[in-house]
Amino acid sequence: MKVEEVKSIVKTQRISAHSHIKGLGLDENGFAIQAAAGLVGQEQAREAAGVVVDMIRSKKMAGRAVLLAGPPGTGKTAIALAIAQELGNKVPFCPMVGSEVYSSEIKKTEVLMENFRRAIGLRIRETKEVYEGEVSELTPVETESPAGGYGKTVSHVIISLRTAKGSKQLKLDPSIYEALQKEKVEVGDVIYIEATSGAVKRQGRSDAYATEFDLEAEEYVPLPKGEVHKKKEVVQDVTLHDLDAANAKPQGGQDVLSMMGQLLKPKKTEITDKLRREINKIVDKYIDQGVAELVPGVLFIDEVHMLDIETFTYLHRALESAIAPIVIFATNRGRCLIRGTDDVYSPHGIPLDLLDRLLIIRTIPYNRSDMEQILKLRANTEGLEIDPDAITALGEIGTKATLRYAVQLLTPAHLTAKINGRSNIVLADIQEVGSLFLDAKSSAKILQENKDKFMS
Ligand SMILES: Nc1ncnc2c1ncn2[C@@H]1O[C@H](COP(=O)(O)OP(=O)(O)OP(=O)(O)O)[C@@H](O)[C@H]1O
Ligand SMILES: [Mg+2]
């Protein structure tokens, strides 16, 4: 099984609307602080989510499922993302929207299975021969390009690594130079290079450089002890999907043609059930040998009412299997038709037998003051200045329509302010955009009142 070069394939998330959320904002006893970590109010749901986080951490949740249910704009997606933040980046969290399963090229169940495996982590411990230390010298050595012309190519790279015990100078291949560049390695970083594969891992900035003016996100690590060349226990976190993908890619040369080939061929069709079974077998073996450990993560299916009866059935069965993540659903629907059926109605559009095994967390509409607080937070995150009476007006709009709608008005209001030569949003801006746009409820009302004027 190929694991060395696997980089976790992180799904890009559409979370910009939730960028102010940093966690659940609970105190050490698990009680919600009214406003903390970017979350405001909705205390009960946040506390319940905290219990779920604890269960996930203590691995008591695998194969279970949670449903976040509540009206639109009450923070369901926000709370799910806060759970992801609380779990940290060692526990996989795979977000998806129910409607993602409908694609013309890929089977619905295939989409689900792929996401399922993105949500299951594997922590692999291996003893590897490495060169480790603080980079004290990094010099690419160039030669004239063999093809002539103006180009120069790197023929090799000289790197010096320093530990508390000594230092070593290494001469490395250009391919490793590329790996170093990819990891953005600079002098003063602590790294290790795997002797067999040449894989490079940057561990952080050396303590010795901690006084320099630097990004606050930088992680400082102590100067490694021991020799530069040594055996080291390397811990790697990957997801089952990472393993599927790494082992499904056509093997062989990394020339341009084969890379193009990979771009053209949809890689999704290459991961077969057979391959997954093989991977599972090897994973089981690794676990038995104590080399690897499963880390059940979270599959978050937003707008779950978009799934149909076929995918629900598949999902229910998958939850029963030995290796399963925790599934968190969210929906704003009440009783509705289960997709794919003609006449089966059910709460939240979820089949009863699946509903039966869910822990349900309810979210409730915000009061005015919570709403204003959230709007202020959002304005802050987007770097917008907004007058207090404009916030009040937005809060009013939020209570009549939804919080989501009120949040969305911030951007056009800021534009209106700019057009009027102001940097801060004032009441008039809110009134102007409020009259330009419609929220869903008012739009629906107009439709209802003017039924005869629309095509149907
Ligand atoms: N308690 C909260 N604290 C801070 N921000 C919040 C809170 N609840 C919601 N928000 C923010 O308000 C906006 C709308 O919330 P969100 O999208 O989470 O609602 P939702 O319940 O998922 O709605 P829908 O049912 O329409 O999907 C988002 O920008 C979200 O980050
Ligand atoms: Mg949502």
UniProtKB/TrEMBL annotation:
Swiss-Prot/TrEMBL GO biological process terms? cell division; DNA recombination; DNA repair; DNA repair-dependent chromatin remodeling; negative regulation of signal transduction; positive regulation of DNA-templated transcription; positive regulation of gene expression; regulation of canonical Wnt signaling pathway
Q: Which residues form a coiled coil?
A: none
Q: Which domain of life is it from?
A: Eukaryota
**One MF annotation (Gene Ontology) recorded for this entry:** ATP hydrolysis activity
Q: What is its EC number?
A: 3.6.4.12
**Compartments where located:** Nucleus
Q: What is its main location?
A: nucleus
Question: Gene3D superfamilies this protein is in?
Answer: 1.10.8.60, P-loop containing nucleotide triphosphate hydrolases, RuvB-like helicase, domain II
What broad class of enzyme is this? hydrolase
User: Residue ranges of the AAA+ ATPase domain?
Assistant: 62-365
Spell out the reaction equation it catalyses.
ATP + H2O = ADP + phosphate + H(+)
Family assignment? Belongs to the RuvB family.
Q: What does this protein do?
A: Proposed core component of the chromatin remodeling Ino80 complex which is involved in transcriptional regulation, DNA replication and probably DNA repair.
Name of the protein this chain belongs to: RuvB-like helicase
Kindly list the organism's lineage.
Eukaryota, Metazoa, Ecdysozoa, Arthropoda, Hexapoda
